[in-house]
Design goal:
The chain is mostly helical. The protein contains 5 helices and 2 strands, in the order H-E-H-E-H-H-H.
């Protein structure tokens, strides 16, 4: 980690704001609270740097150790998987919309199912706390 920070500081012009940023104190505290693997950061006086996909690619040009190269490759593969998941999520939402349009308002129970699926697809912070269920008419 020390070498990484050294190389980033030496090559700051390679890391504009859309490639790398520094977490705020509040963000760091939230990260430590939510992820056990970051407990070492809890008492650190410095704030961690965070890299976007482009920043990770740029890191590979300033870090030359075998381990750094392997980590860069692994992280790039994670970004690719994330993009695939997001794409699949969008496709599913579009297909649900199309199916719902074809149905019209014929069956209220099926519409309720679509609403429940949309609720599950929403990001956690946008999900409502109301538990939806099916009611017999």
């Amino acid at each position: 980690m020390k070498r990484l920070n050294e190389q980033v500081k030496r090559n700051l012009t390679r890391f504009p704001d859309d490639f790398m940023f520094i977490l705020t104190k509040k963000e760091k505290d939230e990260l430590v609270a939510n992820c056990d693997r970051f407990t070492l950061l809890k008492h650190s006086s410095s704030l961690p740097r965070v890299f976007t996909e482009q920043g990770v690619a740029m890191l590979s040009s300033v870090l030359n150790s075998e381990r750094a190269i392997q980590v860069s490759i692994a992280i790039m593969r994670v970004f690719v998987k994330l993009k695939e998941l997001i794409s699949t999520h969008r496709e599913l939402a579009l297909k649900l919309q199309e199916l719902e349009k074809r149905m019209g308002e014929k069956d209220q129970q099926i519409i309720s199912i679509f609403e429940a699926i949309r609720e599950l697809m929403a990001p956690k912070e946008k999900r409502s706390r109301v538990i939806k269920g099916f009611r017999q008419n």
